[in-house]
């Protein structure tokens, strides 16, 4: 069955995550380039059973504080990643690297933040990003996230410790800068 579209953008849509999608997540997260961006390299290798557990705990349990979608490319209809708001914290992975650097990440973030601000009545959103993750920092900067602080020497990569940035944005800052995708 095709994933029904919940939130639609120009290039991608946010859709429910289904159990069959776990095979993709299993593949993506065991790709060190992807898991490095997520700062979960120390958890590698990830087993299929761990991904199934994540699905049971995060996706199937109805929790209003945990909103999570798969990201579907509208042109190819492929599932290319996922995006979440856990409480006020944003998380995103474009797991299919063929889709990096084409604006999918920022568009998926705008879709879920529209939802968070306009449907869930959120006032602010924050995220964590390692200082070496230049691609993610650039994507977040496009949306208007600003550094709110940093956890010093918090994440180990390529033989040394790096800071973990906390970035945040208020609803008013977000809406002044980004055009809503919701109708
Ligand atoms: C981070 C991520 C969500 C960004 O999504 P995306 O769709 O690739 O984002 P964009 O299309 O805006 O592309 C990223 C930008 O960073 C730029 N970029 C890439 N590598 C870069 C580098 N080393 N230094 C500076 N800029 C870089 C790209 O050129 C692009 O900028 P442009 O649009 O001006 O050309 C996605 O790449 C991803 O999921 N990565 C793996 C997991 C991850 O890191 N998640 C975030 C955890 S905090």
CATH topology tier name: Aminopeptidase
CATH top-level class: Alpha Beta
Q: What is the CA–CA distance across the termini?
A: 26 Å
**Roughly how many Å is the radius of gyration?**
16 Å
CATH homologous superfamily annotation: Gcn5-related N-acetyltransferase (GNAT)
Order of helices and strands: EEHHHEEEHEHEEH
Number of helices: 6
Bound molecules: coenzyme A
Choose one word for the global shape.
globular
The tally of domains stands at: 1
Q: Helix amount, in percent?
A: 25-40%
Quickly list its features.
8 strands; 183 residues; five-stranded antiparallel beta sheet; single chain; alpha+beta; globular; Aminopeptidase; three-stranded antiparallel beta sheet; binds coenzyme A
Question: What order do the helices and strands come in, and which of them pair?
Answer:
Blueprint: E1 7-8, E2 12-15, H1 22-29, H2 32-37, H3 48-59, E3 66-73, E4 79-86, E5 89-94, H4 104-118, E6 124-130, H5 134-143, E7 146-157, E8 160-170, H6 171-177
Antiparallel strand pairs: 1-2, 2-3, 3-4, 4-5, 6-8, 7-8
Helix pairs in contact: 1-3, 4-5
The structure holds coenzyme A.
């Amino acid at each position: 069955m095709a994933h029904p579209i919940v939130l639609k953008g120009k290039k991608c849509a946010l859709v429910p995550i289904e159990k069959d999608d776990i095979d993709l997540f299993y593949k993506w997260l065991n790709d060190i380039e992807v898991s490095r961006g997520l700062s979960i390299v120390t958890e590698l290798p990830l087993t299929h059973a761990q991904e199934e557990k994540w699905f049971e705990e995060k996706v199937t349990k109805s929790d209003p504080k945990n909103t999570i979608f798969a990201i579907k490319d509208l042109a190819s209809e492929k599932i290319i990643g996922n995006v979440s708001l856990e409480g006020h914290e944003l998380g995103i992975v474009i797991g299919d690297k063929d889709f990096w650097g084409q604006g999918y990440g920022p568009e998926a973030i705008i879709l879920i933040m529209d939802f968070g601000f306009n449907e869930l009545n959120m006032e602010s959103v924050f995220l964590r990003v390692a200082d070496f993750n230049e691609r993610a920092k650039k994507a977040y900067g496009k949306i208007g996230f600003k550094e709110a602080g940093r956890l010093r020497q918090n994440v180990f990569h390529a033989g040394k410790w790096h800071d973990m940035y906390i970035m945040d944005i208020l609803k008013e800052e977000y809406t002044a800068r980004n055009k809503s995708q919701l109708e």
